[in-house]
Write a structure and sequence with these properties.
The complex is a heterodimer of chains A (243) and B (315).
Chain A lengths: L1 E5 L2 E3 L7 E2 L4 E2 L6 E3 L1 H17 L2 E8 L4 H10 L3 E6 L5 H14 L4 E5 L10 H9 L2 E12 L2 E8 L2 E8 L2 E5 L11 H7 L4 E4 L9 E8 L5 E2 L5 H12 L2
Parallel strand pairs in A: 1-6, 1-8, 6-7, 7-13, 8-12, 9-12
Antiparallel strand pairs in A: 2-5, 3-4, 9-10, 10-11
Chain B lengths: L1 E7 L1 E2 L2 E2 L1 H14 L3 E8 L4 E5 L4 E8 L8 H13 L4 E5 L2 H14 L2 E3 L2 E7 L2 E8 L4 E8 L3 E5 L11 E10 L6 E8 L11 E5 L10 H9 L3 E4 L1 H5 L20 E5 L5 H7 L4 E6 L12 E4 L2 H13 L2
Parallel strand pairs in B: 1-4, 1-7, 4-6, 6-13, 7-12, 8-12, 15-16, 15-17, 17-18, 18-19
Antiparallel strand pairs in B: 2-3, 5-13, 9-10, 10-11
The chains are: A alpha/beta (243), B alpha/beta (315).
Chain lengths: 243, 315
C-alpha cells in the first residue's frame, strides 16, 4: 500500500502574529515553524499503519528549501521518502492541483493530510484534491482503520459523528484523536539523513483571481465598561450584533 | 444578470437561522439584478423563505445518503451547477459545506474563499476580509468577482424583515455510486449545537465549581446562545468535551462571544478569534483576554452575569 501524507509548514500555534507593515505580510522574524499540527496527526497515523500493516509512506510538501529540516523530521519519524514541490502555493486550489498532478504520475492508495493548515485555515485542499482525482473524500476524520482495501472511519459530521466504511483509494482530512503525535528516535534521525527528498518544479501556473492582498492584525476595540454600567454594554451590543 | 447559487439549510421544515441571515445579507448586497438558485440537501419540497428582490429557483438535492461525502455525486452536482452557468456559490460554514465546496470547486475550477468576515463590491471586483492564522490576523483581498465559492461563518449577515414567500423545491436526483456505507451515526445532545450558534457564552475555571453553571446557562438561554468552555474545564470533566473551544477543540465564529472567567490563553483564543464581537468578563484586570476583547468588564462574574441576564431579559 502506498500512502501520501501532505504537510503544511506553519508558525507554531503559540506564535504571536505581528505584521510587517512595509511588506503587508506577517513579520516572520523570530517565528518558529512547525509541521501543521493536524498534518502531524495524519503523518503519525500513516506511520502506525506502516508499522501494523506495512506501507510505503511518502511525505509531500509545497514550499521553499527552508522547510527541509521539518521534512527531514517527518522522515525521521518513519516516512520512507519525501517530495518537495519548490514553490509557494497562492491558494488551496493551486496547491490541490499540484498534489493531484503529482498523484496522477505517481499513484497512491491513500492520501492523508490535516483537516486544515493553521495559517490560512481554509480546510479545502483535501476536498479539491479528491474532486480532481475523483476519489472518495472524508473530513474531519477522527479514526482510521484499514483491512485490506476496506477503510473504517470515524468522521465528525454536523452535530455529531458517524462511523463509515469505504474502499480505497481515498483522500482524508485528519484531526485528533486519529493518532498520538510521535517523537523521532535517535535511530530514526540517523536513517533520515540518507532518505531521499525529491525536489520538483511546480507544474501548474497559478491562475488565481486575486488582484491584491494585504494582511493586518485583527484588532479588537478593547473598550472597558465599569461593572456597574452594564446597560452601556447592552446598548453597544444592540448596535453591533442587533441583539 | 448575475446567477448566484446559495446552499441553504433547514431545521425540520423551517429555514435555519444562519441561512436566513445569509439570505438577508445577499438581498441587500445584490439588490434586484440577480437570479438566485437555492440548493438544499434533504430539505422540504416546499418552504417559506424571506422574500428576495431577485428571482428565486429552488432545488432539493436527493443523493440517497445523508453525508454527502461522495465525490462522484458531488461532481455531478458540480456539472449541474455548471449547466446553469452559475457565477458564484455561497455557503455557510459546516462540515457538509466544506466537503461540498472543495469538490464542486474542483469540478468548476472556482476559487474558494473561506472564513469571510466582510465583503463589499468595488466595480467588477470584490473587497473581501477573511480571517487567517486562527483569527490572529485578517487578510484584505481584492478579487475578481465571478467564479468563486464563498464560505461564510454561521450567523453572517442579518435577518431580513421581509415578508415570507412560498418556494417550491424541484428535485435534483444525483445517482449514488454507493462507494461508502454508514455504519452508525451519533448526534450530540444539548439545546443548541455549538458550531451552529450565532451567540456563544463560554465559561472557564473562574466558575470555581461545576455546580455554578446555572448562571451561564440562564444567560445563554436568554440570548438563545450555546454554551462553551475552556480546555482546563473540560479536562477536569466539569463540562462535556464537545463544549471545549480552542486550538485543539471546536473553533467557533459566532457573531457574539461572551467569555466569563476565562483568562484567555493563546490556545483558547485560537478557537474564538473568528467571533464577530467578543465580550470578556473577568475579575482579574490583568487577564490577557481583555487585550483581545471588544468589550471588557472587570468584575466578579457571580455578580455581573446575573445582572446582565436581568437587563437582557427586559429587552
Amino acid at each position: 500500500m502506498k500512502i501520501l501524507v501532505c504537510i503544511s509548514v506553519v508558525p507554531d500555534t503559540t506564535s504571536k502574529i505581528s505584521i510587517d507593515s512595509s511588506k503587508g505580510f506577517i513579520d516572520v522574524q523570530g517565528l518558529t515553524y512547525i509541521v501543521g499540527p493536524y498534518d502531524d496527526y495524519a503523518l503519525s497515523r500513516a506511520i502506525e499503519l506502516k508499522e501494523s500493516n506495512g506501507a510505503d509512506v511518502v511525505v509531500l510538501h509545497m514550499g521553499t528549501s527552508e522547510s527541509e529540516p521539518l521534512i527531514r523530521k517527518c522522515l525521521a519519524l518513519g516516512a520512507d521518502s519525501a517530495v518537495r514541490i519548490d514553490g509557494i502555493a497562492k491558494n488551496s486550489y493551486q496547491l490541490a492541483k499540484e498534489i493531484a498532478s503529482y498523484v496522477e504520475d505517481n499513484p497512491f492508495d491513500l492520501i492523508l493530510m490535516g483537516k486544515e493548515a493553521i495559517d490560512y485555515n481554509s480546510g479545502q485542499t483535501h476536498g479539491i484534491v479528491a474532486g480532481l482525482l475523483k476519489m472518495t473524500h472524508f473530513s474531519p476524520v477522527m479514526q482510521l482503520n484499514i483491512d485490506g482495501s476496506n477503510l473504517t472511519l470515524e468522521v465528525e459530521i454536523d452535530g455529531g459523528k458517524a462511523e463509515v466504511s469505504c474502499q480505497l483509494p481515498a483522500v482524508l482530512g485528519c484531526q485528533e484523536p486519529i493518532a498520538e503525535w510521535k517523537i523521532p528516535s535517535m535511530r530514526g534521525i540517523m536513517t533520515a539523513r540518507t532518505k531521499e527528498i525529491k525536489i520538483l518544479a511546480p507544474s501548474i501556473p497559478s491562475t488565481q483571481a486575486l488582484i491584491s492582498e494585504e494582511i493586518n492584525e485583527t484588532n479588537r476595540k478593547q473598550i472597558m465598561i465599569p461593572s456597574d454600567q452594564l446597560q452601556v454594554l447592552v446598548d453597544y451590543l444592540k448596535q453591533d450584533v442587533q441583539l | 444578470m448575475k446567477k448566484i447559487a446559495i446552499f441553504i439549510d433547514f431545521k425540520g421544515t423551517e429555514l435555519s437561522s444562519y441561512t436566513r441571515t445569509l439570505l438577508g445579507f445577499a438581498d441587500t448586497f445584490f439588490g434586484s439584478e440577480v437570479a438566485y438558485y437555492l440548493f438544499s440537501f434533504a430539505g422540504p419540497k416546499q418552504a417559506s423563505i424571506p422574500q428576495l428582490k431577485g428571482s428565486v429557483i429552488g432545488y432539493q438535492i436527493n443523493a440517497g445518503n445523508s453525508l454527502f461525502a461522495e465525490t462522484t455525486e458531488l461532481r455531478k452536482l458540480g456539472d449541474q451547477i455548471s449547466a446553469l452557468s452559475i457565477d458564484e456559490i455561497w455557503l455557510s460554514k459546516s462540515n457538509t459545506s466544506d466537503s461540498v465546496a472543495g469538490i464542486i470547486s474542483a469540478t468548476l475550477g472556482f476559487q474558494i474563499v473561506p472564513n469571510i468576515k466582510q465583503i463589499t463590491q468595488k466595480g467588477d471586483s470584490y473587497l473581501i476580509q477573511k480571517s487567517i492564522f486562527s483569527g490572529k490576523a485578517t487578510a484584505h483581498s481584492e478579487l475578481s468577482s465571478s467564479h468563486f465559492v464563498g464560505i461564510f461563518p454561521k450567523g453572517f449577515g442579518s435577518d431580513s424583515n421581509a415578508a415570507s414567500v412560498e418556494v417550491n423545491f424541484e428535485s435534483l436526483d444525483l445517482e449514488t455510486s454507493k462507494k461508502y456505507s454508514i455504519i452508525k451515526v451519533d448526534t450530540h445532545e444539548g439545546s443548541i449545537p455549538l458550531p451552529e450558534a450565532s451567540i456563544v457564552v463560554g465559561a472557564g475555571r473562574g466558575m470555581k465549581d461545576p455546580g455554578n453553571w446555572g448562571i451561564i446557562e440562564e444567560l445563554a438561554q436568554t440570548l438563545h446562545a450555546a454554551t462553551a468552555c475552556s480546555k482546563p474545564v473540560s479536562d477536569i470533566n466539569w463540562r462535556p468535551h464537545h463544549e471545549h473551544v480552542g486550538q485543539t477543540g471546536i473553533k467557533i465564529a459566532p457573531k457574539l462571544y461572551i467569555a466569563c472567567g476565562i483568562s484567555g490563553a493563546i490556545q483558547h483564543l485560537a478557537g474564538v478569534n473568528g467571533s464577530g464581537k467578543i465580550v470578556v468578563i473577568n475579575q482579574d484586570p490583568e487577564a490577557p483576554f481583555f487585550k483581545h476583547a471588544d468589550y471588557g468588564i472587570v468584575g466578579d462574574l457571580f455578580d455581573v452575569v446575573p445582572r446582565l441576564t436581568k437587563i437582557l431579559k427586559e429587552i
